[in-house]
Design brief:
This protein is an all-alpha fold. The longest helix has 38 residues. It has one domain. The relative contact order is 0.12. The chain is globular and about 55 Å long. Helix 3 packs antiparallel against helix 4, helix 3 runs parallel beside helix 5 and helix 4 packs across helix 5. Helix content is 81%, strand content 0%. It is built from ten helices and no strands. Keywords: Membrane, Transmembrane, Transmembrane helix. This is ABC transporter.
């Protein structure tokens, strides 16, 4: 029941509807009209990623920051710990990211005649996992940072997050591109691109990419989990 209430609250939020529903569809429209060489499934992935990153690192992190004081108080007087809150919010985010995917997919099918093929289900699974990954980052931002600070830093963080996903080695060359690609290898977005490229090309998926995709998510999220405080200091104690 609590999760359902939280989902309804988010869906009433105009910021969520604008930045994580309307803008991703707009991006698909732009890519469709400007990037004719880009496969439709990649257009879908880029548009959904924009929605997921915006949802996780901007809308979600600010929502957590605004509500966290209440949940820290609840954690002190009940058995509902802040880490219970973390897992509950992860479920809520999964539902919201699913809605983002479905909205963009329906727009692509209805208005741009995207064909429904099996690899869309594979892409859906990968995107949902990446959504949980970015949601974990957004949650830690929310419990660690004030809402005003999040307003300031969320956009640069979104840009950095996008930089970990863009396949630079496929669109350029040179020593700097090579260095950036090496740095990307410590983040799951690099392996997401490898997996999706294999799926689009109809090639066998490299299981090393699957293992590294899972491993990098785990290694990136584990430190974040320990950054979740048990209680939040009041402003008077700061």
């Amino acid at each position: 029941m609590t999760k359902l209430i939280q989902i309804k609250q988010v869906l009433r939020n105009k910021r969520f509807l604008m930045f994580t529903m309307f803008i991703p569809v707009t991006w698909y429209f732009l890519l469709y009209n400007l990037q004719h060489d880009l496969p439709p499934v990649m257009m879908l992935g880029v548009a959904v990623f924009i929605g997921i990153i915006g949802n996780s690192l901007a809308t979600f992190s600010k929502r957590i920051s605004s509500n966290s004081q209440f949940y820290f108080f609840q954690a002190r007087i009940s058995r509902y710990t802040i880490k219970n809150y973390f897992f509950d919010q992860g479920f809520v985010q999964l539902i919201l990211n699913f809605l983002i995917f479905m909205v963009v997919l329906l727009a692509a099918v209805i208005f741009f005649h995207l064909k429904l093929e099996f690899h869309l289900f594979e892409q859906f699974g990968l995107l949902m996992v990446m959504g949980l990954y970015f949601s974990a980052i957004g949650f830690v931002m929310g419990v660690r940072l004030d809402s005003k600070i999040i307003d300031t830093v969320s956009f640069p963080i979104i840009i950095i997050a996008a930089m970990t996903i863009i396949p630079f080695d496929q669109i350029g060359s040179g020593d700097f591109i090579h260095l950036i690609s090496k740095i990307q290898m410590i983040f799951p977005g690099y392996y997401y691109n490898n997996l999706m490229q294999a799926i689009i090309d109809g090639k066998a998926v490299n299981y090393q990419d699957v293992l590294l995709f899972i491993a990098t998510i785990g290694l990136n999220i584990l430190p974040l989990y320990f950054l979740i405080p048990k209680e939040r200091k009041s402003a008077s104690n700061d």
